[in-house]
Amino acid sequence: MQLVLEKRAERSNTIALISPLIAIVLTIVTMVVLFAILGKNPLLALHAYFIAPLTDSYSLQEIAVKATPLVMIAIGLSLCYLANAWNIGAEGQFLVGAVAGSWIAVKTQGTDAGVWVLPAMLVLAAAAGALYALIPAICKVKFGASEILTSLMLVYVADLFLDYLVRGPWRDPHGFNFPTTAEFDPVATVPLLIEGGRLHLGSIIALLVVAAVAILLGRTIKGFEIRVVGAAPRAARFGGFNSNQLIILTFAVSGALAGLAGIIEVAGPVGHLQPGISPGYGFTAIIVAFLGRLNPLGILIAGLFLALTFIGGEQAQIAMKIPLDVTKVFQGILLFYVLACDSLILYRFKLVFPNRQVARGAG
Amino acid sequence: MQAHQRMLDPTTNGLHSGESPLLRTIGLTKRYGDFLANDAIDIDIWPTEIHALLGENGAGKSTLVKAIYGLIQPSAGEICWKGQPIVLSGPSEARSRGIGMVFQHFSLFDNLTVAENVALGLDGKESFKDMSARLEQVSKTYGLPLDPKREVWQLSVGERQRIEIVRALMQDPQFLILDEPTAVLTPQEADQLFVVLERLKAEGRAILYISHKLEEVKRLCDTATILRGGKKVETCNPRLETAASLARMMVGGEIKQVKAAAGRQTTVPRLVVNDLSLAPGEAHGVRLEHISFELKGGEILGIAGVAGNGQDELFAALSGERLSKDPGTIVIEGLAAGHLSITQRRKLGAAFVPEERLGHGTAPRMKLSENALLTGHAASGMVHHGFIDTAATLKTVDRATETFDVRKAKRDPEAASLSGGNLQKFIVGREILRNPAVLVVSQPTWGVDAGAAAVIRQALLDLATAGAAVLVTSQDLDELAEIADRIAVMFHGHLSAPLATSEATREKLGLLMGGSTLEPKEAAHAVGA
What we know:
heterodimer; A: mainly alpha; two-stranded antiparallel sheet; B: Rossmann fold; seven-stranded mixed beta sheet; 17 helices; globular; disordered C terminus
């Protein structure tokens, strides 16, 4: 008797839907084992991770706030990944967007600049993120350089550039030498949706992005082009679609969305530019994109779920002294299981009983 | 458990009575999921016999020989070798017992020499020098000339096949399986192969010869086993059958004859190629050399030739998947189009059907409606202001389904779930429904069942009758003879002057396919070589 993977005649849509759920269940089982090894009560830990954050309004808002950049970045990444373009550097594009947008905020600080400041920051951040993403895209198209490596390496360039700015030219003179800019003026700040709460306009923008990309992928020829270039490159060329143009386009769009997410984070929940504005949103968004099946609606749900793990991780740290890094372990294991379960979409497990008795008996 | 003692096959002649066959399968069954690829197949192979295995694509021929060669394990039934039941753990055990196989798709490394390739395929422990010497000796003995030091990429397809055959013969097999060996050969090369096979038979070896070319089987084979839908239909003596009766057994019914409309009129030139030369896009590709032809409306031009002589490159150049620097080299509907993209050429009224159905002609994991959009998005009203008109794409699927009898499990399945024949009918239908002025089609019925092949050939004839210019590239000379008005031959990137089909005998085409010209002196020289 042996267990074999057998190819399905047609992809299973049922499995495509439940594969992320299987992955989540497997991840939780693994986490239970991990908590037990750490000497923590697994049930209490799971409660702190997944249930406690859902029980008060502040945490619920905080989940939406954390999900906002995750969803925006992941939506952009999903376009790249559908088109077989591997943008791993969304973290860098996020930071560059944050820096570019902050430049306007820093330069208009204390002036009587009007309401144009915030829109200008958003536009500039998106443009900067797009241009930054175009570096690996153009290197890929012109020179055949692996976009995986180049986009990843540019993350560290962006990180150190931001570090330099807030420790040098942009440092707040009244900030007790902390590496941070001054708090942004109100016109340079993303407005809150609820007075005194945490939810801000960025979440609405993220929802609009989800809707726009859902229409793009489902209804338009451009969306079809993106899907077919990734699914069958040679057929796409036969269809008259240019994969190089598409690499440029999807990288630019995902860079723009990451940059936009960056400035919204800085001009919203953070309120000023400083190092460590991202707890790895650009990388976690890769998990969100795959957990969400590269589907806009799926990404929205996956983004909320991953945001929950961030908040839950903080609560578990406070309540049970579980290290915050366990959250990253959780996210890594989750990605691993998602990719593993995805093979069930095209394959199925089968028990095989080889029938050799006849031959052996006769011999 | 005791193996059943079977009655001798009624068709075997008196010679065999009392002996046991070299190889026998009893109730051999292979199941893939719910699908029975082989359903209780009994076959006997005797020494000094060339045994044909006939059947359409998907009849189970490949599955059967894979089981006999140890590549797959049967789900049920048994294989007896010289009267003893055996279980083959893999091809190397089959080889060590004396079973050899020559595959249709060669497993050769392009950048290695002939001798290196042979050495890689042998299990023996002899030195490279001894092996090379034996290689030369075997190739000489059987009249299969090979230079052990040449690199494979420099060799023709026929020579590559020789490597595979010599490699199999170096194991001194008592039983040799050949999978469609003549599919890639010129008629003359095929004749040479038959001499070798007759000789192997005279040495007392058995040969299992997979083919769907019935005339060839009648000429060469002593016995034929016909498979259909995974089951054995019949074992017979092919020399006592007609090609038509063999075809009936393969298909399980009459095949519709393709009819050309009488009095087809040729009109204006719709596709003109002027001195087209193009460097290959990839390593070991073929350079197109000064190709010129003119194709009028109402006309079907066939391009014959052994695979790998530039047909793929010509298709890419005509379709616009590869662009030509000089716009005037390709003229579609009177407009210079060499520099135009495939989409722009489609807008001029051209349509294309590539050889590979899955992955080139269609995106395998996308629905048929999406695959209709793949080539229809530019010129068929399926896109309005960038938005897809899903109803229009589905309508194309429905029309193609109805017009060309595409059989599928649901209205809009994934392309990969269709059988080869049905998917090809869909692809050809998708293009013909756009009413193209020019249709360029490559291997229209490759790997397609006889019923679907007839539908597709009829569709191409009807399209030409309606006034379109049709260019068909095919390795099947019978197919070209059936539908083409003129036939040209590709060799090493050159295209010969077209011959009227009535004058294009197999001999003439065979010479052109082998690189000779038709001038009497040259032709004589080529035959002598």
